[in-house]
Amino acid sequence: MDDIAAGPFAVGPILVGRAVPFRGKEASAIAKSPADGPIAIGPLGLAGDEQADLSVHGGVDKAIHHYPHDHYAAWRDELERHELLDAPGAFGENISTSGLTEADLCIGDRFRLGTALVEVSQGRQPCWKIDHHFGRKGINARIVTTGRSGWYYRVIESGTVQQGDGLMLQDRPHPRWSVAHTFQLLIGSGHKGDPAAIRALAALPVLATSWRARAEKLRRD
């Protein structure tokens, strides 16, 4: 295992949110607040956390959203110290750490998160709600070009987590597929130059179902 990704990494505030009116008829739970005490983790994520549109958010492959606090400094520079960046949660994440980014972990990595066991399933594909949340255009596109996406976990073993708990790598079965590389291939434009990688991702069983479908579509296009 890579020493950088092994950890343990201290987990910041545990963030949850309820779906509330967001824009017109649209609702969202992107605005999240710190939760008190140990929080239960089940197959669909953190107790008390919601997703408004279950067709694209939530589910077993997107149970917990992790966004690196490491990216906040760059965002502050680019967004002129936007007030949302004063505390974790600006990108709708459930947890945040320092010292671990998309380049440092791989699809299929298993981590002990508090007492739960979680597995990296995909990078976070941004949507229009991020731009609306920040009140700025172009943030969504900037995530795609920079790869500062964050990632999702599925839950392998239920448990609990609270602020200050450790995040510790347990297993790395697919070291070829960093989240950064996979994101660049499937969400960026990397697929155009590496059809063999796209074929391999379409058959990677630990990759989230929706991203395997995306790889299959890119393979056929």
Automatic annotation (TrEMBL):
Span of domain MOSC: 33-170
Spans traversing the lipid bilayer: none
GO molecular function list: catalytic activity; molybdenum ion binding; pyridoxal phosphate binding
UniProt xrefs under InterPro entries: Benzoxazolinone_Detox_Enz, MoCF_Sase_C, Pyrv_Knase-like_insert_dom_sf, Tri_helical_YiiM-like
Cross-referenced Pfam families: MOSC (PF03473), YiiM_3-alpha (PF03475)
Protein name (record): MOSC domain-containing protein
Organism field: Croceibacterium xixiisoli
